[in-house]
Amino acid sequence: MKLLLEEEKFEFDFPKAKALYKFDERDINSPNYHSAPMKAVDVVAEFDRFQLWIEIKEFPPHSIKAMQHTKSTEADKQPKYNKAHLTENLKYKFRDTFLYRLCEDKATKTIVYICLTNFDDALNSYFRKELQNQIPAGQVSRNSDKHLIAKSQVYVVNKEAWKRNFAEKFGTCSKTA
Fold first, then answer.
1. Using one digit for the tens of pLDDT, what is the confidence trace for 72-110?
2. Rounded Cα gap, residues 112 and 150, in angstroms
């Protein structure tokens, strides 16, 4: 069965997924609507052995340029283009989604968290490392042997990197506009 979803000007086609839906649903009549005020990932795909959580972040070229320069006055004037602000936003998208899924008893499978951006590979690599530290990925508490997510399951990629790394594993992701 072919599962297609359009979200944030992207089309996702995951033929092996059991379910594919917009998780950050705003329509009160949708079965995926969450009444809790939360920061949620945009898309969830359910596979047999894991859940794929996708957050989409695209920025205009001038803001990407501002993020590439650590001491940018433009990034300071517009906090949403600041590296620390974006890392915090992506971290809370993961954590709120995790908490909500835990409350639904649906946080039982391995999680793969992918942030889909329009950044170059160098900036994506920077954000991946920052996000792995902020979540914190791969770390367990003193009172448990479980972690929220494995470090190797946190990714920040653009559509070209998606095609190289995930097209055969999960399915395709293409720009619609």
1. 454 455 566 688 889 999 999 999 999 988 888 888 899
2. 8
